[in-house]
Design brief:
The chain is of the alpha/beta class and 538 residues long. The protein folds into 3 domains: 1-63 and 427-528, Roll (Urease, subunit C, domain 1), CATH 2.30.40.10; 91-251 and 254-290 and 400-416, Metal-dependent hydrolases (TIM Barrel, Alpha-Beta Barrel); 303-398, no CATH class. 33% of the residues lie in helices and 19% in strands. The strands form 4 sheets. Strands 1, 2, 3, 4, 5, 18, 19, 20 and 21 form a 9-stranded mixed sheet that branches. It has a 6-stranded parallel sheet with strand order 9-10-11-12-13-17, with helices on both faces. The two termini are 34 Å apart. It binds zinc ion.
């Protein structure tokens, strides 16, 4: 037999969690067609994998590549770390549905969040037409999509007001969700920290999640509060999954945020364990870093966001409002998660920003920036940045403790997700989170090889067959004859992340070859401009 690609002399880790075995892999027409200890045959391309692990491609369970991938499918930061499939539409944020006639409004909202989106023309309304659009954009890797609660609110309950939906509005959101699920969305995602999603009540979300459940969908959630109410917030995610009848629930980028709350993962993991023991399937995903990244304006209390960015910018220039904002941000609050209160300005760092004035301060803490600019205090610095940047810039927050990170990573219900985006290598994009480039190799280098927190086969299972099973992808996530050839070849002795918070645009080491749908996208650490990625439908 003549193969397209023949991988020789590899150490095969098949993704099940079983130990490695010596073997060779024959690939033809996009699929794995033969796995044997030795394969005789010719091939257009022969890869010698001596001393290397050969395993299924990594599945990124939590990606925000939505907007970026409309600009370009050259996801260099992802493919070089071995990611062959990513799951978009997370934290309640998806680019569809968009009601007819409101394209310009939608575009403004997305551009507020992600300024480069200004160059994109919105040519879709339904989720089906959105996925069709994505089908036509050449991409290195496969992409799956969730429909986001924020998009449903935009479509069905416009106004970003802090009030419950009318029954008509709820019905409207349900029908948008129904269309999205029929089109191939994998489930419903929420980001309950973010207004206007933060205004919603548990029972409203249950009503929506029931629609996802009718289509064998999943409920993925950036929970309401990852700090002082992390335990109650995990309970809410479990409750929504249980009451809606969704196939499974997933706690996105599971963490315990804020020094005073470290250690709470003991309780959250027990809740997850208990739920599974009574027949409610709950998992979580995680990135292996002690800093989170989100919009800088998330530091402001929820009421400041009401009515959208324009209103927010008015409020942060009103002295009376500013006084209240500062008090709520810096002093202990009851329900809302204040990053400033829990972590301090010295652990909050400016990340991507877009004005010439603030770009030089990227990767520096708000405390440091206040000092460097001779500002009155950190709060004034923060407000000045938000006004100059139209509230559209980002931050990283050093909010997590290593004990919690390790405890969550060891859970058998845990998987990995970048919470980043697949982007072309470009340092001009500014200080992105290093997870964009380093999530998977960091696990394999730091937590498997150096710290031996996980065995190699267990880590690979969490990166491959487990997420594939969770998503219902029956033809990916394993090394098996007959399934899609998404494959990573890496050196277990050298694999390592290189991206840091200061120098985040850096490819990892030790991952010479990555194959997507039977095509070599990375060969000898060099990227080929081929685009075998597919849009996956549930
Ligand atoms: Zn999130």
């Amino acid at each position: 037999m003549r193969f397209d690609i023949l991988i020789k002399n590899g150490w095969l880790l098949d993704g099940t969690g079983n130990p490695w075995f010596p073997g060779e892999v024959g690939i033809k027409d996009g699929k794995i067609v033969k796995i044997l200890p030795t394969i005789d045959g010719s091939a257009k391309k022969i890869i010698d994998a001596s001393g290397h692990i050969v395993c299924p491609g990594f599945i990124d369970m939590h990606s925000h590549s939505d907007a970026f991938s409309l600009l370009t499918g050259e996801m260099e930061s992802y493919i070089r770390q071995g990611i062959t499939t990513c799951v978009n539409g997370q934290c309640g944020s998806s680019l569809a549905p968009i009601p007819k006639g409101r394209e310009a409004e939608a575009k403004n909202r997305i551009t507020d969040e992600f300024p480069p989106f200004a160059g994109v023309e919105i040519t879709w309304n339904t989720f089906a037409s959105y996925l069709d659009t994505m089908d036509k954009i050449p991409c290195f890797i496969n992409q799956a999509y969730f429909v986001g609660f924020d998009a449903l609110l935009f479509a069905g309950q416009p106004g970003e007001e802090d009030r419950p939906p009318t029954s008509e509005e709820l019905e409207s959101m349900k029908s948008y969700l129904d269309e999205s699920m029929k089109a191939g969305a994998f489930g419903l995602s929420t980001g309950l920290l973010y207004p206007p999603q933060a205004y919603s009540k548990t029972k409203e979300i249950v009503q929506l999640a029931k629609v996802a459940a009718q289509h064998n969908g999943y409920y993925f959630s950036h929970i309401r509060n990852e700090g002082d109410s992390v335990v109650d917030s995990v309970k809410e995610c479990i409750e929504i999954t249980e009451q809606s009848g969704c196939v499974g629930g997933n706690i996105s980028h599971h963490k315990v945020s804020g020094r005073p709350h470290w250690g709470a993962s003991k309780k959250t993991l027990t809740l997850i364990e208990d739920a599974n023991n009574r027949g409610v399937s709950i998992t979580c995903d995680q990135y292996p870093y002690n800093r989170g990244m989100t919009s800088l304006r998330t530091l402001l209390p929820p009421w400041v966001h009401e009515g959208g960015i324009e209103q927010l910018l008015i409020r942060i220039q009103n002295p009376k409002d500013l006084k209240r904002i500062r008090k709520e941000m810096e002093e202990k609050q009851s329900e809302w998660e204040s990053f400033v209160q829990a972590n301090g300005y010295d652990h909050i760092y400016l990340a991507q920003s877009y004005t010439d004035k603030w770009k030089p301060y990227q990767a520096k803490s708000l405390a440091k920036i206040a000092q460097m600019t001779g500002s009155a205090d950190e709060f004034s610095t923060l407000i000045e940045i938000l006004i100059d940047e139209n509230a559209a810039c980002y931050m990283t927050v050093e909010s997590m403790g290593e004990e919690d990170i390790r405890r969550i990573m060891k859970s058998r219900y845990q998987m990995f997700g970048t919470d980043g985006a697949g982007i072309p290598y470009n340092p001009d994009l500014g200080a992105v989170h290093p997870r964009f480039y380093g999530t998977f190799p960091r696990v394999l280098g730091k937590y498997v090889r150096e710290e031996q927190l996980l065995t190699l086969e267990e880590a690979i299972r969490k990166m491959t067959s487990f997420p594939a099973q969770r998503l219902g992808l029956k033809d990916r996530g394993l090394l098996r004859e007959g399934i899609w050839a998404d494959i990573v070849v890496f050196n277990p002795n050298t694999v390592a992340d290189k991206a840091t918070f200061e120098q985040s645009h850096a490819f990892p080491e030790g991952i010479p070859h990555v194959i997507v749908n039977g095509e070599l996208v990375v060969e000898q650490e060099t990227i080929h401009k081929v685009f075998p990625g597919k849009v996956l439908r549930h």
